[in-house]
Amino acid sequence: DAGVIQSPRHEVTEMGQEVTLRCKPISGHDYLFWYRQTMMRGLELLIYFNNNVPIDDSGMPEDRFSAKMPNASFSTLKIQPSEPRDSAVYFCASVLRGGYTFGSGTRLTVV
Amino acid sequence: GENVEQHPSTLSVQEGDSAVIKCTYSDSASNYFPWYKQELGKGPQLIIDIRSNVGEKKDQRIAVTLNKTAKHFSLHITETQPEDSAVYFCAASTIGSGGSNYKLTFGKGTLLTVNP
């Protein structure tokens, strides 16, 4: 079991550019969560999916953020256009019956 | 919605001492309380959890206690070792039959440093 795979591990981009973060959950897990982690705000829930369907996106900061889960083995979080305040570590977590497995995260830096 | 407060934000102990981290929650419907350990450059990892029908749970050197009436729960680490140094997060959720969403609300984290 390779666990939850996130890519890229690090991303540095210029303000205004589009950024796409990727997540491959654990096979058989039926929930997928996207979290953002910063020193100031801790771990914030952005959006989560159940069986590939978005359930709650109330944590998405604004329209610049969007997330998709086209199938059970892949999800993306897109920021367009990116801004310096989006700099954070973004985690996805694959969940089965309440048990969370986090990926190693993507450290995003927007300059 | 649920609000989880965690204290202290930093904790420094000597190797071999005990460490205690405390959390309070606001939603009386919460019934699942996991603790996560996050090492540098990694995602949080579950170390222990407790459900609301249990008051205490132990796993070797770590234990968690829950007081439902007071809405607080604590993590206890005994005989601390340098490899216990990490950020620890508490969380709360409502899980079970019907309407579970498994959405976790996290505390802000505690940076534990164990000095050799």
Task: Explain the overall architecture.
The complex is a heterodimer of chains A (111) and B (116). With 111 residues, chain A is an all-beta fold. Chain A contains no helices and eleven strands. In chain A, the strands form two sheets. In chain A, strands 2, 4, 5, 6, 9, 10 and 11 form a seven-stranded mixed beta sheet that branches. A four-stranded antiparallel beta sheet of chain A has the order 1-3-8-7, with no helix packed on it. In chain A, a hairpin with a 2-residue loop joins strand 5 (42-50) and strand 6. Chain B has strands at residues 4-7, 10-14, 19-25, 32-38, 45-51, 56-59, 62-67, 72-77, 86-92, 105-106, 110-115. In chain B, the strands form two sheets. In chain B, strands 2, 4, 5, 9, 10 and 11 form a six-stranded mixed beta sheet that branches. A five-stranded antiparallel beta sheet of chain B has the order 1-3-8-7-6, with no helix packed on it. Chain B is globular. At the A-B interface, strand 5, strand 9 and strand 10 of A face strand 4 and strand 10 of B.
